[in-house]
Structures are given as structure tokens and as C-alpha cells.
């Protein structure tokens, strides 16, 4: 456990990162259906049903394609993410010209915020596995020393990107990028709320909260600072 400016940082226990890779609850039967595109009633004519627009039809057709494409970019089983650690979101499968086979804290947080929303709408054990792997990989990344700093003083949490094997990227880059921890915390908090609502408050408190606490401590400490080139 470390401290910076009065805020507590939790070092995630190794046994919890290992346990997160395995499902820790029995599968639940879902009574929720994935919502369809909402259609407003025509004012004054509730009996009429507006025709589905071309845009709505496109969204419905594209949704499963886009969803599969996102999963394809998540390690370690994603078709485009071979060689990356479980729960890691790759920015691109391109390894040269340009080299973007890395994982960004910001991008990963945005991706898993969307995936958590989907999971909350409809229980999916396979998707839950990926969310748990993301939490575990986040816990590990928080402790990785990097050019932005360390965990003990909080500065390392602002590192923009990492190698897909959860090691530090030490090349030149614009760092730190301070929105990453906030976006990551939002994603994990969404999953924690689902755990609490479904009778797993102890898991949310013991496993997820230490990770979220680190990121929130960083946000509270550095939200007003600009990034510098390192």
C-alpha cells in the first residue's frame, strides 16, 4: 500500500489477479432482452407505426459485425490479437508502417465501457470472462513501472500505452495522458454496480474496488494537470 498527497493506492494482490481469470459466480438465467432501437410514437396518432429507416436497418445489420470485430481485437483469443495478454485491447493489428499493436489505457476503457453496458443489458458468461480478464490486466498494468512514473506516487497510472504483453512501452510518446484512468474507472465501476445488484458485493469490494480506487486517486490528484512530452 502506498500514498500520494493523502490518497491511498492499493497494490493489487497477485492471488486476486489470478482468480479473476476464472469465473467466480454461477451462471445466471437472464430475464433481460437486448433492447431494440426505440421508435417514438407519432404525436396524435398512437396507432401508426413509423417505418424503419434505412439508418436503423443499417445499424441492426451492422451491430453483430461490429461487435464481433471488437471482440476480435481483445486478447488473448481475439482473431486479430494473437500474442496479447488476456483482457488486453489492441489498438490495431498493424505491427509496422504504422506500428500500432499496443494497448491504450483510454481506448481500452472506452471499449470495455460499451461491453459492460451490453453485459448489463443481457447476461453473457463469455463476455463476463472478458470483463474479468480486463479487470485483472488492469490490476497488473497499474503496477508496471513506466516512463510516466510508478504506482507508489500515482504518476505511472497516467501512462498512455503499453505493450500487449503488459510490459512498459519505453519509446517516445505524448505522456502522460490523464483521461485514461478516469475512463477505465468508469468501465469497471459499471461492472461493480452489476455485481452489487446481483448479490456479489464482496467481490466488488475486495476485487474491483482496489483497482478503481487507484484510478480515482489519480484523477483527484492530477485532473487539472496538462500532459508533457517525455
From TrEMBL:
One of its GO terms (cellular component) is fungal-type vacuole. Residues 65-225 form the GH15-like domain. The keyword Signal applies. GO terms for molecular function: glucan 1,4-alpha-glucosidase activity. It catalyses: Hydrolysis of terminal (1->4)-linked alpha-D-glucose residues successively from non-reducing ends of the chains with release of beta-D-glucose. One of its GO terms (biological process) is polysaccharide catabolic process. The keyword Hydrolase applies. InterPro entries: 6-hairpin_glycosidase_sf (IPR008928), 6hp_glycosidase-like_sf (IPR012341), GH15-like (IPR011613), Glucoamylase (IPR000165). Keywords: Carbohydrate metabolism, Glycoprotein, Glycosidase, Hydrolase, Polysaccharide degradation, Signal. It is an enzyme of class 3 (hydrolase). Its EC number is 3.2.1.3. Belongs to the glycosyl hydrolase 15 family. This is glucan 1,4-alpha-glucosidase.
Amino acid at each position: 500500500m502506498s500514498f500520494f498527497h493523502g490518497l491511498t493506492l492499493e497494490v493489487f494482490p497477485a492471488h486476486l489477479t489470478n482468480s479473476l481469470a476464472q469465473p467466480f459466480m454461477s451462471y445466471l438465467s437472464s430475464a433481460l432482452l437486448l433492447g431494440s432501437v426505440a421508435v417514438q410514437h407519432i404525436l396524435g396518432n398512437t396507432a401508426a407505426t413509423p417505418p424503419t429507416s434505412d439508418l436503423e436497418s443499417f445499424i441492426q445489420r451492422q451491430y453483430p459485425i461490429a461487435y464481433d470485430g471488437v471482440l476480435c481485437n481483445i486478447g488473448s483469443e481475439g482473431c486479430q490479437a494473437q500474442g496479447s495478454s488476456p483482457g488486453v485491447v489492441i489498438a490495431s493489428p498493424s505491427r509496422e508502417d504504422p506500428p500500432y499493436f499496443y494497448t491504450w489505457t483510454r481506448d481500452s476503457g472506452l471499449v470495455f465501457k460499451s461491453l459492460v453496458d451490453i453485459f448489463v443489458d443481457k447476461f453473457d458468461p463469455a463476455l463476463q470472462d472478458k470483463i474479468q480478464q480486463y479487470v485483472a490486466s488492469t490490476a497488473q498494468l497499474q503496477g508496471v513501472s513506466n516512463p510516466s512514473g510508478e504506482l507508489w506516487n500515482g504518476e505511472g497510472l497516467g501512462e498512455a500505452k503499453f505493450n500487449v504483453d503488459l510490459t512498459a512501452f519505453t519509446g517516445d510518446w505524448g505522456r502522460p495522458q490523464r483521461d485514461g484512468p478516469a475512463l477505465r474507472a468508469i468501465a469497471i465501476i459499471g461492472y461493480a454496480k452489476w455485481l452489487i445488484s446481483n448479490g456479489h458485493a464482496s467481490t466488488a469490494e475486495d476485487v474491483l474496488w482496489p483497482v478503481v480506487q487507484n484510478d480515482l486517486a489519480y484523477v483527484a490528484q492530477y485532473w487539472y494537470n496538462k500532459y508533457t512530452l517525455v
